[in-house]
Amino acid sequence: MREVTLLDGGMGRELNRIGAPFRQPEWSALALIEAPHFVRAVHDHFIAAGAQVITTNSYAVVPFHVGEAVFAVEGRELATLAGQLARDAANDATHPVRVAGSLPPTCGSYRADLFDRQQADRILACLIGGLSPFVDFWLAETQSTTAEILAVRAALNAAGEQKPLWVSYTLADENPGAGISRIRSGETVEQAVTVAVEQGAAAVLFNCSQPEVMSAAVRAAQTTLAQLGVPLPIGVYANAFPPQSTDAEANDGLDELRPDLDPKGYARWAQQWLDEGVGIVGGCCGIGPDHIACVHRLIDQTHSDH
To answer: Do residues 225 and 280 touch, judged by C-beta distance below 8 A?
Structure first.
């Protein structure tokens, strides 16, 4: 029986839902700055829902969200706080919980064209320095281009970091029936998975895209990993957004959430991914503790049926 690891869901929307300070452009970093007890509460909610991995609230601790001036002065301190809040929540949990250190897109989500290696090196060094004492492994997430993965690996190496690295790509999802599965840079999933393996990834995941595009990416990843002879776990954590166009302005406002992706609706997608052999599942933007609880029950049911 394959073991399944259950991740948490989206931090930002849950902060907004429970009344934490929340606005653009700071997004989930605003609660970290002004009212960190809300961040701890969200971690606790996901743990109570059954999550075995919680992700540090460091996704928006980048100049793109908090501004260059705040990042320069407070970036390291905010990353440390994000790590400490997650670590404390995991330590207080009644079941084993690991902490994933979120290493986000350094120059804007979904926008491979904005990636700047010099900026990335500086930003990643700050985040890794602050988070390192508190995390069990690293999660480079919502990566739109393989260039981001090269930067993450170089930054981890420069910091002497030996913890495992999970690599999670965001997929082009404007046309779910397009056939060839690509990340947002236009690179194929095969290319993206190959780079992840070359950079020593311990798992390959797909996140922050529509559920409809995940299965094709999972199949492409499975084929590529088999060809490379590397049996890595594959993970999926989709969002509840409508399709995101390639010319979308990153950080442009709050997207509407899809009504069909309520907890039961999302769990049906999770069942499909599990049936296809995915070993890691969770949620991204708009996927809350109720969704994760529903997926948790699904995993328990699957295990009890065997």
So the answer is: no
